From TrEMBL:
<keyword id="KW-0812">Transmembrane</keyword>
<keyword id="KW-0472">Membrane</keyword>
<keyword id="KW-1003">Cell membrane</keyword>
<protein>
    <submittedName>
        <fullName>Lysine transporter LysE</fullName>
    </submittedName>
</protein>
<keyword id="KW-1133">Transmembrane helix</keyword>
<dbReference type="GO" id="GO:0015171">
    <property type="term" value="F:amino acid transmembrane transporter activity"/>
</dbReference>
<feature type="transmembrane region" description="Helical">
    <location>
        <begin position="6"/>
        <end position="30"/>
    </location>
</feature>
<feature type="transmembrane region" description="Helical">
    <location>
        <begin position="149"/>
        <end position="170"/>
    </location>
</feature>
<dbReference type="Pfam" id="PF01810">
    <property type="entry name" value="LysE"/>
</dbReference>
<dbReference type="InterPro" id="IPR001123">
    <property type="entry name" value="LeuE-type"/>
</dbReference>
<feature type="transmembrane region" description="Helical">
    <location>
        <begin position="115"/>
        <end position="137"/>
    </location>
</feature>
<feature type="transmembrane region" description="Helical">
    <location>
        <begin position="72"/>
        <end position="90"/>
    </location>
</feature>
<dbReference type="GO" id="GO:0005886">
    <property type="term" value="C:plasma membrane"/>
</dbReference>
């Protein structure tokens, strides 16, 4: 086996605990599901998972040393990510039924394409996720077993699978609840405002966080 079974078991348990703890990704997927329905929730999860795969690749290649060599790069990416989240939140809050939006999925006000790309960019522009992945995954790698890249790949697959199971479930359930509420015009408006508030709050939190 190319990976230490004890480390693998420990990694799986730790990842499950980390995934079921509400965080920015889960809240983002929740908001997308509420606005765009179950499919939008799943596609937002897919976007987040895609960026997770990129983070794993970055961790395996060691490219994140850039943040150590050029500290300002971390700050720049963090601020850009925060600004993007705040932008999404303001757009949601300002949304009106007659505003020019993309074709919505499941009767909601967020298209599947937009949900996926937003999930991808929101997670990708969060340097905390890069540094977390770099700090987290190597703890469960045993260099003496060789094929370090394969060990990273196995851990990455487990991480992404857990992302789909946990956040995907949140997105689908939120989408079903949101779909029911969207039949009521006033409730739909409250969904948009609540979702926008979540995004803006996440953006502000990310902007104010210190490394």
């Amino acid at each position: 086996m190319p990976i230490d079974p004890h480390l693998l078991a420990l990694f799986t348990v730790t990842t499950i605990i980390a995934m079921i703890t509400p965080g920015p990704d889960m809240l983002f997927v929740l908001g997308c599901g509420m606005r765009g329905g179950p499919r939008a929730g799943l596609l937002a999860t897919a976007g987040v998972a895609t960026s997770e795969a990129i983070h794993v690749a970055v961790a395996a290649a060691g490219l994140a040393a850039l943040f150590e060599a050029v500290p300002i790069a971390f700050t720049v990416v963090r601020i850009v990510g925060a600004a993007y989240l705040i932008y999404l939140g303001v757009q949601a809050i300002r949304n009106r039924d007659d505003s020019p939006l993309e074709v919505a999925v499941g009767g909601g006000s967020m298209s599947g394409r937009r949900a996926y790309l937003s999930g991808l960019m929101t997670n990708l522009l969060n340097p905390k996720m890069v540094t977390f992945t770099i700090a987290f995954l190597p703890q469960f790698i045993n260099p003496s077993l060789g094929q370090v890249w394969l060990q990273f790949a196995i851990l990455g697959v487990i991480l992404i699978a857990m992302e789909f199971v946990v956040d995907g479930a949140v997105g689908v359930l939120a989408g079903r609840i949101g779909g029911w509420l969207r039949h009521r015009r006033a409730a739909r408006r409250r969904i948009d405002v609540a979702t926008g508030g979540i995004f803006v709050g996440l953006g502000v939190k990310l902007a104010l966080e210190q490394r």
